[in-house]
Specification:
Number of strands: 10
Number of helices: 9
Radius of gyration: 18 Å
Shape: elongated
Mean pLDDT: 90
Largest sheet: 5 strands, parallel
Order of helices and strands: EHEHEHEHEHEHEHEHEEH
Low-confidence stretches: 234-239
Distance between the termini: 11 Å
Helix content: 25-40%
Structural class: alpha/beta
Strand content: 15-25%
Strand order of the largest sheet: 2-1-3-4-5
Length: 239
């Protein structure tokens, strides 16, 4: 079944060019040059992914992604920007992006991301080791999953009102006793499958999907996430 993407950019020529490339590969594309029209379309149709420019008149990419989450929490989002250091870009990342790409956009990478993007594929990663967190995000991205990250117990409380299908949580992160971040995740997202990771002998404070000891096999973690996503049951034709 053909996939359908939404591209939002006030540079209409750029957006149409990307759209033409995607259409040539057999998929469908809706192209708009403003956030308000994008929100109208998201209310009418379930897209497989949205690609938004970061800086646009009236409403930028960060705010647009936040608004889209209110309408369609499961929609994968990619932001493209010529301003990598934007504070707004960090705000957009907190919405759980599939990727952030710099302009000029690497078309091959964008096409790979679109082809792999999964609806309802957002995971939470709670890990204070920045390198490990980045590596996990990259591994998830390779499977079409997006991630929103937290590095402390407090940051788990600051997570936006997202709808993750699973969480990967280190049992020891700053801001509380062992397992506190996992306990708060379970309270914030009842029924959320949690994959616990640890470098110690800690026992998870709440039931978990799997307990992996560092250094763990990333393949085993990804397999567990695949099982969680399969149980979540993405609608037919929109996996």
């Amino acid at each position: 079944m053909n996939r359908h993407y939404l591209i939002v950019d006030d540079n209409r020529a750029f957006a149409e060019n990307v759209g033409e490339i995607v259409r040539d590969l057999g998929d469908e594309v809706s192209v708009v040059d403003g956030a308000q029209r994008a929100l109208q379309l998201v209310r009418l149709k379930r897209y497989h992914a949205v690609v938004s420019d970061m800086r646009m008149p009236l409403m930028g990419g960060a705010e647009l992604i936040r608004e889209i989450r209110q309408v369609d929490p499961g929609l994968p989002a990619i932001v493209v920007t010529a301003h990598v250091g934007d504070a707004d870009l960090e705000a957009a990342r907190r919405e759980g992006l599939l990727a952030t790409l710099s302009k000029p956009v690497p078309i091959g990478q964008l096409l790979d991301l679109l082809g792999a993007a999964r609806r309802d594929g957002l995971a939470v990663i709670v890990e204070d080791d920045a390198r490990l967190s980045d590596n996990l995000c990259e591994a998830l991205r390779g499977r079409g999953f997006a991630a929103v990250t937290a590095g402390s117990v407090l940051e788990t409380e600051a997570l936006a009102p997202l709808r993750p299908f699973a969480a990967v949580a280190d049992l020891r992160v700053p801001g509380g006793p062992a397992g506190e971040a996992m306990r708060r995740l379970a309270g914030r997202f009842p029924g959320l499958p949690i994959l616990a990771i640890t470098g110690y002998g800690d026992a998870p404070p709440v039931p978990c999907e799997v307990l992996l000891h560092k250094p763990f096999d990333t393949g085993a973690l990804l397999a567990a996430l695949e099982r969680c996503h399969g149980r979540a049951g993405a609608p037919a034709g929109l996996a």
